[in-house]
Amino acid sequence: MFEDSTFESSNRIKKTNWWMIATAILNLSILAVMILIPLLYPEALPKAAMTTLLVAPPPPPPPPPPPPPEVHVVQVKPQMMNNQLTAPTKIPKDIKMVAEKEAPPSSGFGVAGMDMGGGASGGVIGSVFGSGAPKPVVKAETPKKIAISSGVAAGNLIQKVQPIYPPIAKAARQQGTVVLHATISKSGTIENLQVVSGNAMLQQAALDAVRNWRYKPYLLNGDPVEVDTTINVVFNLGG
What predicted TM-score, i.e. pTM, was given to this entire model? Predict the structure, then answer.
């Protein structure tokens, strides 16, 4: 034991110091490797630890809103003194507005000679006492001319003259329908007869026949009126 404390044991002391230095270097190297590996390879760390470290904590909930201030409504009651209204003794800060109900409709009754809002005097009286008189009957004005379909016009036909088949059209084996536009007067006669469509060989024969047709007057609200309509004249070689 005393040999370690003498100068003769200096070689042993130097040998011991080298082992300590080597051990310290080894421990520091291991510690550095353990620190550098997570920094160079972050995927080596546990996912739960990474999630805990990277996810920010949720923000704190907002504070509850303050309660609304209480409103004290003070109703001012009129004070009566000797059947007269008097002013209140104090003016409240908050006054409650009370909506008045709508006034009932006027009955239309007035007094003779009274001016109702600047109108003619006696006008209300005339409306009251004249209520028993019969009301005038308003009758709609009958239109001068209306349009009806060919089917409705055919139902009012009372005299029909068959057209004469043109010999040239019969020889040429021409047949078909001639469409005419006509105005039926209030008396039922044909006016303003015009060709709309059809074979040219058959048009004149159709015009000559339809001019002699007669219709019952078309009534609207009990009054006869003129009507515009179309008339179909059929030419058929088979009869």
Answer: 0.42
